[in-house]
Amino acid sequence: MSAATVLETEGLVKAFGDRVVLDRLDLSVDRHEVVVLIGASGSGKSTLLRTINLLEPIDDGQILLGGEDISDPRVDADRVRARIGVVFQQFNLFPHLSVLDNVTIGARRVHRTPKAEAEATGRRLLERVGLADFAKAHPDRLSGGQQQRVAIVRAIATNPELLLLDEITSALDPQLVGEVLDLVAELKEQGSTILMTTHEMRFAEHAADRVVFLSGGRIAEQGPPAQVLRDPQHADTRAFLSRLTAR
């Protein structure tokens, strides 16, 4: 594992009963790199992210974060999760808390950041994404796209080593997708390290440093976006992309 590598999985295996979802999967993500996972439903994309965040135990292999074996069962899972920012398909905002409290709760409760400091950071980030006026509002006052932007701000408020984004636009109306993906593109420009899943191929082509195609729990193909998406070498990749364009 090089000094520039933030995340590495080695021989990762995860099964649900007799169904193997991750099959000896090896993957690395370097610092400041944006890696986009693509693949059909059931290919292992979301399960991979859940194992990295220690929400699913693995059956074999290793997960290294910053060189530390976080898959060791003796590891404090909460301490590891404090180093990772996660945004899932659903916004998972606390409905009884204000937008600002949603954004700062991780910094205050997990990282023990003083309230004034956490709120100053939260307000600055909300200003950056155009939501400063909603700081005291509750999530039900916001559109889906605004709620997802708040969820992303919450994930980056603690300056995580790694950001995991799992199909963050799938629950949004089409007209709201762009505003969320614009924020991810901005995070890329600012040097965030991101591993994400998406079905937005146009976004993957423009924002990713590397596209990884998963098939049957394995990496079938990976490389620069232009190569994987425009000139795929693997038959499974070609079939997957042709199905998308046929919709």
From TrEMBL:
Q: What is its main location?
A: membrane
Q: How does it sit in the membrane?
A: Peripheral membrane protein
Show the GO MF annotations: ATP binding
Q: Which residues form a coiled coil?
A: none
Q: Which PROSITE patterns match?
A: ABC_TRANSPORTER_1, ABC_TRANSPORTER_2
Q: Which SUPFAM superfamilies match?
A: P-loop containing nucleoside triphosphate hydrolases
Q: Which UniProt keywords apply?
A: Amino-acid transport, ATP-binding, Cell membrane, Membrane, Nucleotide-binding, Transport
Instruction: Name the domain of life this protein comes from.
Output: Bacteria
Give residue ranges for domain ABC transporter: 7-241
Q: Which SMART domains match?
A: AAA
UniProt subcellular location: Cell membrane
The record's similarity note reads: Belongs to the ABC transporter superfamily.
What is this protein identified as? Amino acid ABC transporter ATP-binding protein
